[in-house]
């Protein structure tokens, strides 16, 4: 045979031999893999949804058998879990649903109580606040006139100006306390120095309490609790308001004490309260006419009021107080005082590990640095524009004034002036400070912007920071804080622009 004929014969024999082998292998694979998978699919298709009793044939020792065994184990667990749910009594499910709904209703009620009690408390405080503001303004006007009369005596002018500054700071503090009390914030618990909240609340309340009522304050601890500042402030105001109402006609003494205790007094303890100490113990005591035991038992009922408890004591006030205390894992107790009067006790768990206070404001630095930077100042109040202009000129800055956001943005986009910083008010007509900041930051994300506001309910500090605005200052502006913040941001920007 020729070589080519021999090759042809060999190829033909190989084809005749291997072709049946390949066909046989394909059949084996089909029986071993394809057919079992097809059977799995048919079994699954023939069962209704929700049938967890389905099982596959797992007798095979190969990979298909392993797959079937894993599937069967998984289905066994699913079926067991499903049976446990079905075995649960319908009554139990209804009870659980009712408890979820009850908790939601309780929280909604708490929010409504807070709003109602704040309205009541603000109304109670309004007269005293007006009185306090008038006293402050009288002081400011009086010393301003004295300063004008004493122009030839610089020492007297300086003394009068110091008194004006003190009066203005008192007014600013009073506004901040009112805003803190009235703001509608979500529950925000954090390590809190309760003694500072007590002092601030009592300072705010003092102007509303008649002079016939003395106030005795004993703060003997600086320990902290995990609490929401606004709710703690509201709780203290409510307790003190309820207490002094019982003494409005006859006078007396309102005593507020704050101490640290390791245990709750046995007579104050409740069988259902198991939280261990130590605790902050807040006591609010009055020397009024006292209340009977039946009234004490009903004191926390929102629908219950009585002249015996005085206007404000009981009803919404104490219902809200109890809700706040329970929300903070605390305990409350009321008792009569021998000889007349009532004492309200609050126990709150202490935060054992203290953390540094986030409110660490920089002290006035009389040696503030000057600068040569170009500053955009935007405010619709001419007096504030002139004030900041004079201040920055004094420290060698180059201020450019704008009384609205639109003109400021136009000047920035024209590019004729290379601004190093923007200081803008938040609430302005036509274009807000936030809109101005967003427009500028969209072109230069590194531009230092200081946002100022006298009242902010629109946006939180965290959102302001997330937008890229580097600082937020509350009005009235503290000139030292403004200059210090400016210098910090400008110095921080220099390495990036170098």
TrEMBL record:
Location(s), subcellular: Membrane
Residue ranges of every copy of the HAMP domain listed in the record: 31-83
UniProt keyword terms in alphabetical order: Kinase, Membrane, Phosphoprotein, Transferase, Transmembrane, Transmembrane helix
Pfam family, one: HATPase_c
GO MF annotation, one: phosphorelay sensor kinase activity
The keyword Calcium appears for this protein: no
UniProt GO cellular component terms: membrane
Gene3D superfamilies from the UniProt entry: 1.10.287.130, 3.40.50.2300, 6.10.340.10, Histidine kinase-like ATPase, C-terminal domain
Domain Histidine kinase: 128-352
Chain segments annotated as coiled-coil in the UniProt record: none
EC number: 2.7.13.3
4-aspartylphosphate sites (modified residues): 425
Domain Response regulatory: 374-490
Catalysed reactions listed for this entry: ATP + protein L-histidine = ADP + protein N-phospho-L-histidine
Enzyme class: transferase
Keyword Membrane: yes
Transmembrane segments: 6-29
Protein name in UniProt: histidine kinase
Organism annotation: Desulfobacter latus
């Amino acid at each position: 045979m020729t070589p080519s004929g021999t090759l042809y014969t060999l190829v033909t024999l190989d084809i005749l031999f291997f072709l049946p082998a390949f066909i046989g292998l394909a059949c084996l694979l089909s029986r071993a893999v394809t057919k079992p998978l097809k059977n799995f699919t048919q079994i699954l298709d023939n069962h209704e949804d929700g049938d967890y009793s389905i099982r596959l044939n797992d007798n095979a020792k190969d990979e298909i058998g392993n797959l079937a065994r894993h599937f069967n184990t998984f289905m066994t667990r699913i079926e067991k879990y499903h049976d446990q749910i079905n075995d649960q009594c319908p009554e139990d499910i209804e009870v659980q649903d009712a408890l979820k709904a009850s908790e939601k209703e309780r929280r909604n009620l708490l929010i409504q109580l807070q709003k109602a009690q704040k309205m009541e408390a603000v109304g109670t405080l309004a007269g005293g606040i007006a009185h306090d503001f008038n006293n402050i303004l009288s002081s400011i006007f009086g010393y301003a006139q004295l300063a004008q009369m004493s122009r030839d005596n610089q020492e007297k002018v300086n003394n009068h100006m110091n008194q004006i500054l003190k009066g203005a700071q008192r007014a600013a503090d009073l506004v901040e306390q009112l805003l803190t009390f009235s703001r509608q914030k979500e529950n925000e618990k954090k390590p809190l120095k309760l003694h500072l909240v007590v002092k601030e609340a009592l300072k705010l309340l003092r102007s509303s309490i008649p002079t016939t009522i003395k106030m005795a304050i004993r703060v003997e601890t600086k320990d902290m609790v995990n609490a929401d500042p606004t709710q703690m402030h509201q709780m203290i105001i409510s307790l003190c308001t309820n207490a002094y109402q019982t003494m409005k006609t006859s006078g007396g003494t309102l005593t507020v004490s704050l101490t640290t205790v390791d245990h709750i007094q046995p007579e104050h303890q409740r069988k259902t309260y198991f939280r261990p100490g130590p605790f902050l113990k807040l006591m609010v005591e009055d020397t009024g006419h006292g209340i009977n035991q039946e009234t004490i038992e009903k004191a926390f009922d929102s629908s219950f009021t009585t002249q015996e408890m005085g206007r404000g004591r009981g009803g919404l006030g104490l219902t809200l107080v109890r809700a706040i205390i329970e929300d903070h894992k605390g305990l409350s107790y009321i008792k009569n005082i021998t000889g007349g009067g009532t004492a309200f006790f609050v126990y709150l768990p202490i935060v054992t590990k203290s953390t540094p206070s986030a409110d660490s404001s920089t002290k006035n630095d009389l040696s503030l640095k000057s600068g040569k930077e170009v500053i955009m100042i935007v405010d619709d109040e001419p007096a504030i524009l002139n004030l900041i202009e004079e201040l920055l000129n004094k420290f060698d800055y180059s201020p450019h004034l704008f009384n609205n956001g639109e003109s400021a943005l136009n000047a920035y986009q024209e590019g004729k002036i290379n601004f190093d910083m923007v200081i803008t008010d938040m609430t302005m007509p036509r274009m807000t400070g936030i809109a101005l900041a967003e427009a500028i930051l969209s072109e230069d994300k590194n531009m230092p912007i200081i946002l100022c506001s006298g009242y902010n309910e629109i946006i939180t500090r965290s959102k302001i920071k997330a937008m890229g605005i580097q600082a937020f200052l509350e009005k009235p502006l503290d000139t030292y804080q403004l200059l210090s913040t400016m210098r910090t941001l400008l110095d921080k920007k220099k390495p990036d622009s170098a």
